[in-house]
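Quick check before the chapter quiz. The format below is the same one you will see on the exam, so make sure you can read both the input and the output lines.
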Amino acid sequence: MAELQNDRFLRALLKEPVDRTPVWMMRQAGRYLPEYRATRKQAGSFMDLCRNKELACEVTLQPLERFPLDAAILFSDILTIPDAMGLGLRFETGEGPVFDKPVRTLADAKKLFVPDMGSDLGYVMDAVSTIRKNLNGRVPLIGFSGSPWTLATYMVEGGSSKTYAKIKAMMYDEPATLHHILDVLADSVIAYLNAQIESGAQAVQIFDTWGGVLTPRDYQEFSLRYMHKIVDGLKRENEGRKVPVILFTKGGGQWLEKMTATGADALGLDWTTDIDEARARVGDQVALQGNMDPSILYAKPERIREEVATILAKYGKGTGHIFNLGHGIHPEVNPEHAGAFINAVVELSPQYHK
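Here is the expected output.
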């Protein structure tokens, strides 16, 4: 593998000194870019795009051609694992993901299995190795997975949900069934992320999109417990270098200390927690990633720059901050506004690292 030319993202995750705050964006390869929309059209469908290693590589690299980003993130979907379990995933226009065979009973749960990373999910590993080769050491590559709780939410609900009625009914009425599902998913995520690391991912992130809908007690039992299991099971070194792990629970700002106790290297923050308070609470135990409201990118470039300056000042001096949005970039954002955000981080952050 090519020598890494820009490793400030990996260094900041491990709280090592950097020359400026590294920056990347969740969903940086996506619908806000016209070149992404053109490639997706060429692919035919979203999952066809995920399954074509050349096209997945192309869209992963597109934002790096536009912006001075410090990391690339694998282009894939969080639902690849449940899809590989044979639940009949499809994407409906305007409706998002739909599973033809949702998991609603103990009998359904008992049919679940850890997919084979070579045959069932080999296309993801092919994409990872293709992207890594094409990056040629420019910046590190981030691999990722959905958290067990988040994946289970889609699998039990049968798609997206606003009320979480089915999974919460299962959680309260049949916790043993849900624990069985979460256990199989945690084992699957461990195998999946380790396979990504072996294929060339240099850091990994666990996206717990729906952890914030739980009570503090249920978050610990049904979400954090399984992310902790994953962190314990991951390969933390590869190619002679540490492989950092980032945990991101949307709406999880109240649980940062408990998340820190998992042994993850970094925590992602959404926009509902002030980064100065988060830093005061976790101290030097973990790096922090985030936490600008993605909606600020609808504002004028000068307002975006002000927001970047505010967040940098709140984090203050020293390493351990990876600048990012508090969630994925919205599809309607003007790419020039994304550029204004990234350039502001590049220009304004060196003063905090002298």
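If your answer matched, good. The chain has a mean pLDDT of 97.
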